[in-house]
Amino acid sequence: MDKFKITGGVLLDGEISISGAKNSVLPIMAASILNSGTTILKNVPHVHDVITMKEILEHIGANVVLEDDILTINTKNISKTDAPYELVKKMRASYYVLGALIGRFGEASVSLPGGCVIGARPVNLHIKGFKALNANISLEHGYIKVLPSKLKGASVFLEGLHGSSVGATINVMMAASCAEGTTYINGAACEPEVVDVANFINSIGGEIYGTGTSLITINGKNTFNDTTYTIIPDRIEAGTYIIAGALIAKELKISNLNPDHIGAILNKLSETGVKYKTENNSIIIAKAQSVNPVNIKVSTYPGFPTDMQAQFSILMTQAKGSSIILETIFENRFMYIPELMRMGAKIQMKENSAIINGPTKLDGAEIMASDLRASAALVLAALIAKGESTISRIYHIDRGYTKIENKLKNVGALIERIG
Ligand code: EPZ
Q1: What is the pLDDT of residues 351-395, one digit of tens each?
Q2: What is the torsional sign of CA 214, 268, 271, 338?
Q3: Which CATH number do you get for residue 86?
Q4: Confidence of residue 292 (pLDDT cuts 50, 70, 90)
Q5: Cα–Cα distance between 418 and 409 in angstroms, integer?
Q6: Which helix (H) or strand (E) is 418 found in, with range?
Q7: Which ligand 1 atom is at minimum distance from the Cα of 128?
Q8: pLDDT confidence of residue 114
Q9: Which of 34, 47, 105, 418 is exposed most, by the fewest CB atoms within 10 A?
Q10: Which of 11, 40, 66, 116 is catalytic?
């Protein structure tokens, strides 16, 4: 299994260009099922989850060609409406084919994804939404089965105990795009990826209004057209490299991002006293002389994203004083902390919060990645640590970061992939 060997302490200098958003392209690939024709996607990130979604689309009969960052999908000859466990277990986002298949065919059989390391991750809100649309849905032998159903527009409230759900909002939006009549999603997620999926569906002839707010209105349609669509930049990849810049850059330009999507991250960064400059679609940032501790409470968009919690914690290990990081969305997103403590960080865990006392010098060590964002955080930690670190299980990082070692090497980092 591949590992990263990183020698810390080298100042980064240069430019990193941000790739397309993983959490947009996956549901948009699934939504391409709706148009029964050709979809061309541009700015597609080179991440392993895209390959997994490609395999699922191919399994049901779609023709999918990936060339550089352009993905061409033809869904005319789809002949199956199932997604088996072997494919779904690799990636939770596989469940996006459910909304699209129910929309186009009125039936589907998709394996339940199960829990994952960051939390239990139930799908009750997805099911509630599909039921409201008149889907004849049941759970059988670990599969969500929808028997032939005629979808009808409805009003549905999709907020759960942890607030709105990105996945349920998108899944229901896809199915409702083919329902008879109008659907209203109340308590909808406002994340930029939800807006991107809606913009994509509108580009194939859908009618979705109100995305980016908590009330989305969808007028169902019978026919859709071909499209060429460009995926938005990945705001979490951008945030990760911005933190790298604040930690250890002579000067780092992070380009091809959308500053409007990273407002909460930039606001928190300003509170730490770290200086940065925004220039069109780029952020220019350098290593801060001193970092103030700040408290973070993660929340749904436009709040501070849970997907940036781990990376921001690395910056807090360098802040002068104590900061509290409160995770409110997933119950198990602090798996990187014991690894960080082995590198010398001073952190106490209390229920769903981490109290970080800084500044601490980190030492290189052998560490293990537990999930995607935790792995990115450990890479950041290794970049500032004294000496050499080896990070194992980096297949997690390959699921969501485009060529991370090449992007970091290009700006001077000493990082190698070893077998
Ligand atoms: C998406 O997951 C992202 N994944 C996650 O990115 C991200 O962390 C998360 O949204 C929150 O922003 C993709 O887009 C592929 P949710 P999703 O439904 O849609 C609870 C990454 O590192 N909930 O918004 O699965 C749920 O347990 C990842 O790229 C229910 O209770 O997240 C959580 O507490 C990991 N019932 C909260 O809602 C449901 O039916 C928000 O989850 C669905 C969710």
Answers
A1: 999 999 999 999 999 999 999 999 999 999 999 999 999 999 999
A2: positive
A3: 3.65.10.10
A4: very high
A5: 14
A6: strand 414-418
A7: 40
A8: 64
A9: 418
A10: 116
Does the annotation mark 116 as catalytic?
A: yes
Q: Does 203 share its domain with 218?
A: yes
Return the residue whose CA atom lies nearest to atom 21 of ligand 1.
307
26, two tokens: 């996956």
* Mean pLDDT of all residues in 279-283: 96
Closest to 98 (Cα-Cα) out of 137, 40, 55, 154 = 137
Tell me how far the alpha carbon of residue 329 lies from the centroid of ligand 1, in angstroms: 8
Closest residue by Cα to atom 17, ligand 1, is 167
Task: Grade residue 121 by pLDDT with cuts at 50, 70 and 90.
Answer: confident
Sequential DSSP letters for 211-262: BTBSEEEEE--S----EEEEPPB-HHHHHHHHHHHHHHEEEEEEES--GGGG
Please indicate, yes or no, whether residues 382 and 288 belong to a single structural domain of this protein. yes
Domain housing 400: 3-19+233-418
173 and 207 both lie in a single domain: yes
Flag whether pLDDT at 232 surpasses 90: yes
Tell me the per-residue pLDDT of 78-95, one tens digit each, with 9 for 90 and over. Answer: 999 999 999 999 999 999
Domain C-terminal end among 199, 230, 261 = 230
- Mean pLDDT, rounded, of the chain: 96
Give pTM, 2 decimals: 0.98
Q: Which residue ranges have their beta carbon within 6 Å of ligand 1?
A: 23, 26, 93, 119, 121-126, 160-162, 165-168, 189, 193, 306-307, 329-330, 372-373, 400
Is 53 in the same domain as 197?
Answer: yes
User: Looking at the structure, do residues 263 and 315 belong to the same domain, yes or no?
Assistant: yes
220 and 257 part of one domain:
no
- The residue among 253, 258, 369, 274 whose CA lies nearest residue 24 is 258
